[in-house]
Write a structure and sequence with these properties.
This protein is an all-alpha fold. It is 72% helix and 0% strand.
Length: 57
C-alpha cells in the first residue's frame, strides 16, 4: 500500500513521524527545564524564608 502523492510530492510518513518525535522530545526537554528552574527557584525561596524565620545562632 503506497500513499497517493500529493501536489507537494509523495508524503514521507517516516520523515513526518521522525519530525513529530523530534518536536515532542524538544517540547519535553523544554518542559523539564522549565519545571527544574521553577523547582530550584521555589526551593531557594523556601530556604530564604525559613532562614529569616530561624536566624542562625
Amino acid at each position: 500500500m503506497t500513499p497517493k502523492p500529493s501536489p507537494a510530492g509523495p508524503i514521507d510518513i517516516a520523515a513526518i513521524e521522525a519530525e513529530a518525535r523530534r518536536l515532542r522530545a524538544e517540547a519535553m526537554a523544554e518542559m523539564v527545564r522549565a519545571f527544574g528552574h521553577g523547582l530550584k527557584r521555589g526551593w531557594s525561596a523556601l530556604a530564604h524564608r525559613s532562614a529569616r524565620h530561624h536566624p542562625a545562632h
